Every structure is written in structure tokens, then in C-alpha cells.
Amino acid sequence: MRTPKRFLAAVALVGLLAGCGGGAAPTGAPVADGELRLAAQFAPRSGYGMDTDDAFVVAQLGATEALVRAGSDGTAQPGLATSWEQRGATWRFTLRPGVTFHDGTPLTPAAVVNALTWVAGVSAPPRAIRGIGLQAAEAGLDAVTVTTTTPDPILPLRLSSVNTAILAPSAYTGGPPSVIGTGTGPMRLVTTDGTQQATLERHDAYWGGRSQLARVSVRYVTDPAARALALRAGDVDVAQGLPESALLEFSPGTGYDDQAVAAPRTVSLMLNQKGVFADLRVRQAVEKALDRTALAEQALAGSALPARELFGPAVAWGSQEPPPAPDVPGARALLAQAGSPQLTVRLQTYPNRPELPTLATAVQGMLREVGIDARIQIGEYGPQEPALLAGDYDMFLLSRNYLTDVPDAGSTLVSDYSCAGSYNINQYCSPEFDALLGPLAATGDPAGRQEVFRAAAARLTADVVGVPLVHSQENAVARGVSGFVVDPLSKQLVTPELTRTS
Q1: Contact indicator for 294, 323 with CB cutoff of 8 Å
Q2: Which among 107, 126, 216, 435 is least buried, having the fewest CB atoms inside 10 angstroms?
Q3: What number of H helices and E strands is found in the chain?
Q4: Whole-model pTM?
């Protein structure tokens, strides 16, 4: 197990508890106008579509920005907007002066309205703004208004979503907007090569100050071992998401900056309630079969924490308690009561998160002990998603950052677990659970929202809506780089302060 050396701030509604990071700080001299070479963990799979998860890719690379940023305390902070105020169902956002798009045109209210209207009007709006009836309008020379169907207490946090980034009017030519040369960030996307690589150059007119880097070259490397190999060979300067086995060789004293941060991320075993797992007893049997402490401490060599509930110690409202011990006889008894003493199921997952195949193998062995034959299938996530959302699967191991879409857990609870949820992989529907979430629509008070989060997590545990296995970390390793910090929400990597060193 790696020994944590320092703590990195993480983001949440009222602040995340610190995570662990390691590695020695870089000591080389800054290289003026340097180039950063990055081995990225996830490749764009939708042509850099701003209404898809590809928006995280361009945001991390420093190409795009939204009206609002999420601060380190989880509150809404100025981005392309400097201030905002609410009147009923309408919020007024004052725009930052002096912002220039990568194509040389100025940020205007019309440009903001154009961008927000486009993303709100796509056939499947991003999760952060889906179903809220978002409408934007110009409000004088330096402001816009954003109105929703009902008053939304967390709309500024929704507009920190990477999907709501503002692109230049030239990006919108009738089809999906182009992110090449149309953002506002410190780096300008200049070339892309499908899912293989991309190049960015410095945006000298950036409102937040001139970037230390002149160029960023990114290679999309979905194989964790290949990312480690590229870093070891000196082909890249930063590699994201390395497996624990590889991190051991990049330990303190080796010249690498190895960072890991406790993230609001949970690996859960999703159980399709449209199929064999419609029976609560079968779901309870799966839960009892799994030794979550062993998964965290042995299978993952202590690089994760065992999970009792959906929310863990990375957030103030998360469970601090250990999970219950496994109960193999109890699991077998429940399967017998359900008339399914022997089951054969598919256990699917994906390789981009290096811990998932390892966990799949360990879970397979634990389930075998109670009479469940889980047959592992590993493939890229993208092609699997339609079947998951349609309920055409048995078990799926998913790593989910529950503050990614919006830095407020209410968004994930609605999208992932409500009856009308757009990302309800478990196929769970409980009117009582939906009613439990009701107060979130009316209160922006952090304490009140946290009480709902706690109650919702307890209900999901009682109904065995999937099984939370471990709370994982975000990690990356750098060499010859200064100012590098791992973002637990995976929204930022390339910043104006990031510098190559000799």
C-alpha cells in the first residue's frame, strides 16, 4: 500500500474531506513556453460533442469554460460570469468583461444565449440541465437571464457543468458545434485526430493571464498499462489513472510526482431489477456474498476504501461506518428462499478504470461461493451504455463520480435512481424514494440538502439498489512538471499555472 504524503482539496457541496497524494514536488527550473505531453485516460467517443461526456475532455485540456466554476468549498464561483442573482424562476448573470474567444470575437450576451439555447435544445440534454426547462435571454449589454420551469435553487451550480461551456458563435453552423478554435480557455484546440490524439496551443488573449505552456499534445490511451509504459519511456510528461501495481514504481524519490486524491467516486455493482434481480432476496444475497473490506484492502491493495453506502468519507454527509461482514450461509439461504439456489449471470465492466477488471475477478470468486456463476465480459464503456440504459444486462461494475455532472449530490440521485432518471442503470423505481427527493427542488440550504442525501443513501441501501463496493481515488503521475494537481471531479488539468521544468 502506498503511503500518503500530503493532502489535496476535493470538491463538494460543503467541501470534501481531504484525499491522499504522494510524490516529491518537482525541483527543476521552469521551461519558458514549454510543451506538455499527456497520456489521457479517456478518449472522446462522440466527436467532441459538447452535449456528451466528451465535454470533460476539452475542459480538462483547458479549452472551454462555463459561466460558473465550482469552488474548493463546493460553492458557485465566478467563471465567465462575475455575479448572479435570483428572482423566482429567473437568474440574472453578469458577464465578465474583456473575454475573447479563440477565434478573436468577444464574449457577448448573444453568444451566451446562443450556446445555452443550443445545449438545452438537443434531443437528449446533458444530465446537469435535463428536464428543468432552461431558457436563456439577453439582458442588456453585459448580462443574460436564465429561466427554468420552476425556481431552481442550484442553477448556478448546474451552469458549472462542462456541458454548458460557452463557445463562439462561429462554432454553431447547423450541426453539432465545433470546439476547434472556438473556446475561451487558456489553451486553444487546433487539431484533432479522432480518438487518437489532439494538439492545443496557447490562447495569448486569455482573460485569466497568459499560460506558462505554449503547447499541449495529448494522446488518448485507454489501456492503463500502456499509459504507464508511455510515462516510463519518457514519451509523455503526465499519465492519468494508473493501476496500483504501476504506481509502486513511481514512488517518492524516483523523480516522479505521484498524486492521488480522495474523490467523490464509488464503484458499485449494478443489479438489473428488470431481470433476475427484481427479487429483493436475490439482491440481498449478492450483498451478503461480498466482502467489501477484502475488495478494498486486498484486491485493490489498500488503494480504496470499503463502501457501506453510496456516499463515503470523501463528503461531509457520507457514511463513516465500515460495511457489514460477508454472510455466505445467509446468502445461500436467501437464494434458496427465492427459488434460485444456482444462478448464471453476466458480469460486465470496462477497462479504462484500472481497478474494475481486478474487482470483477474478485467479485466473481465471492459470488461463486454462494452459488452464483458470474461470467465476466470486459469491453469499452461506450458501446455498452445503450444496453445498460435499456435494461439489457445482468450485473455491471460501474465507477461513478456522484458530483461530476453538478457539484451537488441531488443531481445524481435524480438521474441515477428516480423513476424518470435518465441514467437509471439499476432500473429502480420507487415512488417513496422519489418523494424523499422532493425537498431538493425547493431548498438551496446546504444542511437541508445534506439531510436528504443521507436519507436517500439509507433508502438505497435498504432496497439494495446495486451494491456500493469501494470508494476509489483519482490518480495521475507527472515528471518534469510544476503546478500539476489532480482534480477529483475530472474537470481541470491544464491551467495557466502548469509549467514544464527541466
Answers
A1: no
A2: 435
A3: 13, 21
A4: 0.80
